[in-house]
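TICKET: design request
STATUS: open
ATTACHED STRUCTURE:
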């Protein structure tokens, strides 16, 4: 075993490196974006806050059933009169224009995302926003080539898509939903999460800037009831949902018996599997990225580390050392690795499940780290002594908490990895290509990463097995989810 120094040597002291928030112009209040205009809602309003400071950022309209109805009607008109009839080559021009504006305004989008969500600026700047632009560029390229996608000679749009997204990747989930829907000729009504509405509203401004025809994109802010009204609306042809398995099941019940098409992208409890022949330093980076990226608010997070027994001590020692170097704090500091937990509710859930982990016999460890006085924070944490029966090995914590289990043989690794109600993603770390392929075949997960983790690309389909949902987003399957190969109904 390679000897690891007991303490990480602090080679550098970091000076604060704050990103300026002067680039964003947050208004005191926001209306709903319906039919190309910002309008007052009929309902109440709610506040969105900065989870790193608890500062109120803006007052946002809460769409009620009547507002949702207006948005769906606007989307229907835009679909039948303009967007559904427009040649794909024309739709592509709008999508390319949106993609270009996103790139041009990327710093503004990244800063706003970090302020409203709590994620580190280096993540929103280097990961989220570039992939958002990539999605629009990618699907813009498909808009005039739908008949070459292998989906029939003349695939038709479904009509109006009702789309509901969570708070962990607000703008990225918006892009995953809106880009393929528009490329395929659908119009959309999108509901962002209650705690993170601001980048969706800035995206609405981008639609105006791009001269997108009115009603093609509508944004209805609100909470669960707004989402429910959208799902239940008779004028919606397709429901696309990303969020928790619990709400996903409720949505499936609501649309059962209707002709609405549905895709559900739900939770996960991914196994990140490290074999004894893995490049250990690389694997440590992958484990850290797998669970501490975006504070662990990631559906495909590698929240269960399965490590081969013969290297478990070494991996744990190195992992703890690496965790001691993670910088937790101000999301707008360019050196921050782990930002704020998105809400007080989510923080309470992470505390609750971590306490259960301890009371069920797991050993909890976190590096010494000073957390800011205001805002919602949780230190990077790992649990050892975890068995498959423990709740922290079974339930999605959706926070920076890693459960560590061990295995002896590849068959045991597969058995343990698949022993979950979910099946969204998995990671395999090994030197052997044949073992990677064997494992990928055995694992019941929609995405299997090999010697890497949390890699996303618009060309690559993403989605789950079992309680992680059904349908795929990304690539051609992501386009197929918005097209009808054999009907002219949506035209
Ligand atoms: P959530 O509570 O299910 O909320 C998701 C969205 O649904 C939010 O916009 C929410 O509104 C809305 N909503 C709540 N109740 C609703 C209802 N009855 N009908 C219609 N819409 C309703 O999930 P979350 O806690 O925000 O997000 C975390 C979950 O998302 C995790 O389980 C995570 O794994 C999953 N996720 C999955 C993927 C994937 O691709 N598979 C990606 C990211 C996240 P409000 O927030 O405004 O209440
Ligand atoms: Mg917020």
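STATUS: resolved
RESOLUTION: sequence designed for all positions
ATTACHED SEQUENCE:
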């Amino acid at each position: 075993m390679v000897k690891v120094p007991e303490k990480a040597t602090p080679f550098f002291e970091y000076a604060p490196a704050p990103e300026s928030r002067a680039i964003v112009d947050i208004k005191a209040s926001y209306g709903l974006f319906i039919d190309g205009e910002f309008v007052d809602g009929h309902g109440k309003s709610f506040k969105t806050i900065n989870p790193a400071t608890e500062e109120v950022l803006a007052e946002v309209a809460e769409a009620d059933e009547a507002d949702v109805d207006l948005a769906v009607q606007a989307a229907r008109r835009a679909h039948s009169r303009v967007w559904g009839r427009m040649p794909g080559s024309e739709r592509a021009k709008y999508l390319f224009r949106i993609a270009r504006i996103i790139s041009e305004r990327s710093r503004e989008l990244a800063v706003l995302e970090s302020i409203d969500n709590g994620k580190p600026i280096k993540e929103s700047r280097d990961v989220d926003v570039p992939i958002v632009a990539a999605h629009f560029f990618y699907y813009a390229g498909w808009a005039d080539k739908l008949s070459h996608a292998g989906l029939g000679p003349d695939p038709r749009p479904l009509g109006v898509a009702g789309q509901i997204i969570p708070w962990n990747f607000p703008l990225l989930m918006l892009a995953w939903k809106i880009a393929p829907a528009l490329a395929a000729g659908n119009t959309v009504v999108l509901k962002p999460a209650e705690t993170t509405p601001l980048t969706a509203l800035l995206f609405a401004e981008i639609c105006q800037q791009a001269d997108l025809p009115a009603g093609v994109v509508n944004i209805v802010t609100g909470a669960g009831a707004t989402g429910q009204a959208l799902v239940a609306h008779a004028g919606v042809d397709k429901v696309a949902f990303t969020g928790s398995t619990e709400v996903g099941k409720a949505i499936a019940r609501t649309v059962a018996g209707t002709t609405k098409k549905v895709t559900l992208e739900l939770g996960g409890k991914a196994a990140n599997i490290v074999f004894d022949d893995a490049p250990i330093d690389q694997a440590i980076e992958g484990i850290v990225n797998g669970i501490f990226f975006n504070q662990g608010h990631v559906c495909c997070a590698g929240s269960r580390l399965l490590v081969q027994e013969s290297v478990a001590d070494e991996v744990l020692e190195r992992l703890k050392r690496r965790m001691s170097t993670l910088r937790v704090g101000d999301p707008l500091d360019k050196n921050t690795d782990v930002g704020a937990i998105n809400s007080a509710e989510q923080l309470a859930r992470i505390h609750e499940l971590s306490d259960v982990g301890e009371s069920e016999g797991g050993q909890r460890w976190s590096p010494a780290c000073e957390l800011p006085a205001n805002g919602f924070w949780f230190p990077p944490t790992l649990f050892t002594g975890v068995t498959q029966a423990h709740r922290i090995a079974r339930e999605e914590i959706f926070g920076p908490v890693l459960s560590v289990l061990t295995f002896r043989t590849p068959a045991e690794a597969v058995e343990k990895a698949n022993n979950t109600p979910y099946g969204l993603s998995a990671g395999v770390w090994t030197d052997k290509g044949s073992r990677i392929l064997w494992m990928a075949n055995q694992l019941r997960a929609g995405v299997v990463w090999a010697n890497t983790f949390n890699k996303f690309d618009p060309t690559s389909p993403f989605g789950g097995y079992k309680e992680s949902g059904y349908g795929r987003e990304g690539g051609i399957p992501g386009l197929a989810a918005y097209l009808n190969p054999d009907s002219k109904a949506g035209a």
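CLOSING REMARK: Residues 48-49, 51, 116, 195-196 surround magnesium ion (ligand 2) (CB under 6 Å). Residues 487-491 have pLDDT under 50 and may be disordered.
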